[in-house]
UniProtKB/TrEMBL annotation:
Residues 394-466 form the AMP-binding enzyme C-terminal domain. The lineage of its organism: Bacteria, Pseudomonadati, Pseudomonadota, Alphaproteobacteria, Sphingomonadales. This is Class I adenylate-forming enzyme family protein. SUPFAM superfamilies: Acetyl-CoA synthetase-like. PROSITE patterns: AMP_BINDING (PS00455). Residues 11-101, 125-342 form the AMP-dependent synthetase/ligase domain. Pfam families: AMP-binding, AMP-binding_C. It comes from Croceicoccus esteveae.
Length: 473
């Protein structure tokens, strides 16, 4: 899709296959669907409505995008068609947070989206007003360590990302995907764009608070599923451990936003034989920069190989490339990499250099077969008496204990060492095992053994499943 936009790809689908389903709104796959022809009419109508409201090409449009809201998808695409800049947000957030976001972006609110879409709107522009190099959306990062950053993505960025994702997953016109992830982050937005440019159909779920609805959609013939690991665990529980029985037509699953242990990945392969199982690594600034195929010979401890069209280099502290197998900071470059951060030139200059390389702040290394392994984040390092400790080392060791399902490590103040590791765990039972620390001690250096272990019912995570260490602190 080089030099084009996702809007032009969707228009082609509507012209070539106007009756094909694009959005599946009813409980049964294919019933009460919105065809590509109808979708294009709705997109153009919403775009025309915005233009009548006097929006300019660079206006930011605040879009409430609740999970499962098909109308929000139409409004998002209509905003892009009109040449506006989409600012997706979670309508469940507080009024104060929304006010702050609106002030930060100078965004304009739109009327009730559902009401607008049911109006008899005249069609807007026949062709999208958006240009490939224009700003398409401001997506605010999950804010796991501080204030969310406004990531600026152009139409060229999201088109390159969508084409790459659809190519790797193998999306096509026969796909019927159940989307359970939020629509305000790069995972959910990426699934929408990738399926639609390929001519497939989407059935959006309002999260997995009611997993039975997602299971019913899978049973009715879904070929694809997008989910985070925590959500997948809910589905497996609801399916009484036999998810394959509820997904007779499922051919692919994309997981992302949160890590899984190698043991959990192997168990998933056993649970869904014959299904192509993908996990991805990336950031809001560079979505899906690597892909890992679980049901293959890919090393499950890695986060996969570099995606098509993406460049990756691991740099040492002095900025020089690290040798194969040596650790450093992961840097990415490609047409999917964001153009910068909203109203923050200093951060943009600090994270994206003049050659287009993005400093991810993720630590890792690459093996001889070009697989990327992550060891933590530079910002999360714990300084134990001068020894630099990645919390991922501790978490990985803890999760090999039979009674630990999740683990998170942070640094806490110590008057002698400066910092020492503290561990939080989610257990399979109600009692803390006596051997957790000794189990970890057999796998890590002495300075990495936690000084304290606390059991929690659940680890704090963002809506997209990312661990929030700041809340543990």
């Amino acid at each position: 899709m080089s030099g084009t936009t996702i809007l032009e790809a969707i228009r082609r689908q509507a012209e070539q296959n106007p009756a094909a389903p694009a959005l599946l709104i009813a409980d049964k796959m294919g019933a009460n669907s919105v065809s590509y022809g109808a979708l294009l009419k709705l997109i153009r109508g919403f775009a025309g409505h915005l233009l009548e409201q006097g929006i300019a090409g660079a206006d930011r449009i605040m879009l409430p995008m609740a999970a499962g809201d098909h109308a929000a998808v139409i409004a998002y695409l209509g905003t892009l068609w009109a040449g506006g800049v989409a600012v997706p947000y979670d309508p469940a957030q507080s009024a104060a947070a929304l006010t702050q976001l609106t002030l930060r972006t100078g965004g304009r609110q739109v009327p009730d989206i559902d009401a607008v879409l049911f109006m008899d709107l005249p069609p807007g522009p026949a062709a999208p007003l958006a240009k490939a190099d224009a700003l398409a959306e401001l997506v605010f990062s999950s804010g796991t360590t501080g204030e969310p950053k406004g990531v600026m993505l152009t139409h060229a960025n999201i088109a390159a990302s969508a084409a790459m994702i659809a190519g790797v997953i193998g999306n096509g016109p026969n796909d019927r995907e159940v989307v359970t992830v939020p629509l305000t982050h790069s995972f959910g937005l990426g699934r929408i764009r990738s399926v639609l440019i390929a001519g497939g159909a989407l059935q959006l779920m309002p999260g997995l608070h009611f997993p039975g609805a997602a299971l019913a959609a899978l049973q009715a013939g879904a070929t694809g599923l997008s989910c985070v690991p925590v959500g997948l665990a809910l589905l497996q529980t609801a399916a009484q451990g036999d998810l394959a029985a509820y997904a007779p037509a499922l051919r692919y699953l994309e997981l992302g936003s949160a890590p899984m242990s190698a043991a959990a990945k192997r168990a998933l392969c056993d649970a869904l034989p014959g299904v192509r199982l993908w996990m991805h690594y990336g950031l809001t600034e560079a979505s899906r920069s690597t892909f890992l195929r679980l049901d293959s010979s890919d090393p499950l401890e890695s986060v996969g190989r570099i995606s098509p069209g993406v460049e990756l280099v691991v740099r040492q502290e002095d900025g020089t490339p690290a040798r194969t197998g040596a650790g450093g900071i992961v840097h990415l470059r490609g047409p999917h990499v964001a153009s910068g951060y909203w109203n923050d030139g200093a951060l943009t200059a600090n994270r994206i250099d003049a050659q287009g390389w993005l400093d991810t702040r993720d630590e890792g290394w690459v093996d001889a077969d070009s697989y990327l392994y992550l060891t933590g984040r530079a910002d999360d390092q714990i300084n134990v008496g001068g020894e630099k400790l990645s919390p991922v080392m501790v978490e990985t060791a803890a999760q090999t204990h039979a009674q630990v399902t999740e683990a998170a490590c942070i640094g806490m103040y110590d008057p002698v060492l400066g910092e020492v590791p503290r561990l939080f765990v989610v257990l399979t039972g109600d009692t803390m095992p006596d051997d957790i620390l000794s189990h970890i001690a057999g796998q890590v250096p002495a300075y990495a053994v936690p000084h304290d272990v606390t059991a929690l019912v659940a680890l704090p995570r963002t809506a997209s499943g990312k661990l929030q260490r700041n809340k543990l602190r």
